[in-house]
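User: Can you help me understand a structure? I only have the sequence.
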Amino acid sequence: MLHSADRILTSHAGSLPRTPELLEANEARVPGGAGAEEFDRLLRDAVVDVVRRQREAGIDVVNDGEYGHAMTHSVDYGAWWTYSFDRTGGLEIVDDNDIHVPKRSTPGNVVLTSFLDRRDLAAFHDAYTDPSSGIHLADPDLPPPVFPAATGPISYTGRDAVSSDVANLTAALRETGAAEGFVAALSPGSAARIGNHHYASEEEFLYAWADVLREEYTAILDAGLVLQIDDPSIAESWDQINPEPAVEDYRRFVQVRVEALNHALRGLPQERIRFHLCWGSWHGPHTTDLEFKHLVDLLLSIDAGAYSFEGANARHEHEWKVWEDHTLPEGKLILPGVVSHATNVVEHPELVADRIERYAKLVGRENVIASTDCGLGGRVHPQIAWAKLETLARGAELASRRLWA
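Assistant: Let's start by predicting it. Here is the structure, written out as C-alpha cells:
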C-alpha cells in the first residue's frame, strides 16, 4: 500500500453514489432479469467515470465505488453486506428464518438479537418512527426485509462477479492513471449474521464463511489490487445484544470473529490488506455505541496492514485520544475518518486538517491516510458526497503543508 511519504494521502471507506442509470440497470442483477449485457457495459463505463471523478476530487487511493455490489435504491445501508448473497451457494429463503426474532443474552453467553431489537432503536423509538426526524432507516413497524439462511454447506459462487470487479477497476486505474485501487469484501463475522440452519455451532459457521470469503480475498489480491475487509460486526454488534453485555463478554464474542478473519487471511500479504471498522452507518443517535478504547487492541490484532475507522462523527471524534495509549505497530497505517457520512454539513478544510494533524502527531505523518468515516454512497445526497471528498482533499493539502513545513 502507498504511504504518505511526502504529503498526506487521501482515500475513502468504499461506497460512492451510484448514477440513476446504474441504479435502474442493477435490476438486471436479479436472477432471471433482462439486460445483463447492457448492465455489464454500463458498469464498466461507470467504474471508469467514478475513478476519474475521485481523481478529480483529489483522492489518491481510489476504488470502484462498490458499483459491483448491487444497489437498486439511492438510500441503501446494506449493499456492502447483501451483495454476498448472490455469491454464495447453500443459502435459501426459508419460512422459519429466525434472524428477525428478538433474542436475549445471558452473562457469559452473548448472542445477537434481531436488527430491529437494537438498544439504540428502543431508546429512541419515537425518533426512529417519525418520518420528520431525519433518521433514514426502514420503518420498524413495517415488515422486515427478507434475508436468506444457510440450509446446507456454503460455497463461493462469485468468481465471475469478483472477476468483473477487479477487471473493471484495473481498467479504470489504467485509463485514469490512478496509482492504487482497492476492492471491498465482506468479513466472516458480518457474513455470519444471517440465519444458520446447517452448521452445528456459531463458530463452525464463522469458519465456513472464512473459507468461502477467502476465495474472494485471494482473487482481489491476485489481481494486484488492495483488499479492504468491511466488518461492522466488530463494533456495531454491541448494539444488537440485549441486554447490554459485560464488556469482557463482548470482547470474547469479538475475539472469535477476529480469529475467524485471521484464518481467512492466513498467508495473504498483509501489506495489501486494509480493515474497516465502523459502528453502523445509519443516521441515528448511536448512544449505545461501544467506546473505541475497548476495541482498539482487538483491531490491531487483525492481520492487516492498515486500519480504517470512524473518527469524524459527533459520537466518536474524541476517540483520537486512544492513540495516546496504543502504539501503532511498525509498518502499519491508519485511515481515520476525517469527514463523516452522518451529517449533511460539509466539513471545512481547516477542520479536516486539524483532525489529520491530531493523528499524525501521535502515530507519525507517514502512517496516516486521510479517509471518510464510512461509505458515502447511499448515505448522503450525491452532491454532498462529492463535496465531502473534495473538502477531504483540501484538508489533506493544508495538513501536509503544516506537517512537512
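Now, to help you interpret it: The two ends are 25 Å apart (CA to CA). The longest helix spans residues 36-57. Let me know which part you'd like to focus on.
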